[in-house]
TrEMBL record:
Gene Ontology terms: cellular component: CCR4-NOT complex
InterPro entries assigned to the protein according to its UniProt record, in alphabetical order: ARM-like, ARM-type_fold, CNOT9
Upper classification of the organism: Eukaryota, Viridiplantae, Streptophyta, Embryophyta, Tracheophyta
Pfam families found in the cross-reference section: Rcd1
Organism: Gossypium barbadense
Any GO BP: mRNA catabolic process
Name this polypeptide is given: Cell differentiation protein rcd1
Xref: Gene3D superfamilies: Leucine-rich Repeat Variant (1.25.10.10)
SUPFAM superfamilies attached to this UniProt entry: ARM repeat
Family (UniProt): Belongs to the CNOT9 family.
Length: 271
């Protein structure tokens, strides 16, 4: 219960507004806090700034909208701002917050959500975020693509047009080429998502030769395998990916636990 929730915000605005914003974090006080803030939004000119800069508030509000059955699909359809190429901090924060909400929806593998994601521009928008975003937004957008590809409808959507499949494989390739070890916190998850996407794409035997043509050899560097070494599932997925791509004439690679025969060998053993 928000004490004195009906009191006007004009009484000590900064302290009062901050108190109400804190109330948005709790399910018990969120509705009351939001109601008071809305009714008094004109009484405090910097309310939007406080909401934007307060930790986790936008994420909470967006999750509320995205989780409600009557608003989650309209929300997904309204996320056209993900197409922006602007890389300023404010846009990156909005990008990360929005992608986080969409990612939480995709994570549950709800067929209805996946279907609507495919009917909107979320898929190409995520590819664009993978190109222009920072490491965290790249990680989340790659996760969304991965979760979409895990569904049969999503995989079919990717392969139904050659241009679409090529855009995905090329985007993943560019993502790997631009990998840096500066963001140690998010890099393992990003690698996991990239491997998941490639593994799913490699399941299509007909397009494996094309996939291997766009597969970045840099990704087979031992340093990346070492980063994911602590995750047996991801390491197993990487081994399987290597084995799948082995079938392509243009991709010759070791698929054993033996070390490469020499440092100049084009093959790789996954540790």
């Amino acid at each position: 219960m928000i004490s004195g929730a009906t009191a006007p915000v004009t009484s000590n605005p900064p302290a009062r507004v901050r108190y109400l914003i804190q109330g948005l974090a709790s399910e018990e006080t969120r509705e009351q806090s939001l109601d008071v803030l809305c009714k008094n939004r004109l009484a405090y000119g910097n309310l939007a700034v406080l909401l934007w800069n307060s930790f986790g508030t936008m994420r909470v509000l967006l999750k509320c909208v995205a989780s409600h059955p009557n608003t989650k699909i309209p929300f997904i359809r309204a996320t056209t701002f993900l197409n922006t190429m602007n890389n300023e901090r404010s846009y990156e924060c909005l990008r990360i917050t929005s992608l986080g909400v969409i990612g939480s929806l995709a994570k549950v593998q709800d067929p209805e959500v996946i279907e609507y994601l495919l009917s909107t521009q979320i898929f190409p928008s995520c590819l664009r975020c993978m190109e222009v975003g920072k490491t965290l937004s790249r990680t989340v957008s790659t996760f969304i693509i991965y979760r979409i590809l895990l569904s049969e409808k999503g995989l079919k959507y990717c392969f139904i047009l050659a241009e679409r499949y090529l855009s995905v494989s090329q985007c993943l390739g560019k993502l790997v080429e631009n990998l840096t070890e500066d963001d140690a916190e998010n890099l393992p998850q990003l690698l996991k998502n990239i491997i998941g996407c490639y593994l799913r794409l490699s399941e299509n035997k007909r397009t494996r030769p094309q996939l291997s043509s766009y597969f970045p050899w840099k990704f087979l560097d031992h340093k990346y395998a070492n980063i994911i070494r602590s995750d047996p599932k991801v390491l197993a997925d990487l081994r399987q990916l290597v084995c799948n791509l082995r079938t392509s004439k243009s991709f010759t690679i070791h698929c054993t636990d033996e070390p490469p025969t020499s440092s100049d060998s084009p093959g790789l053993s996954i540790p």
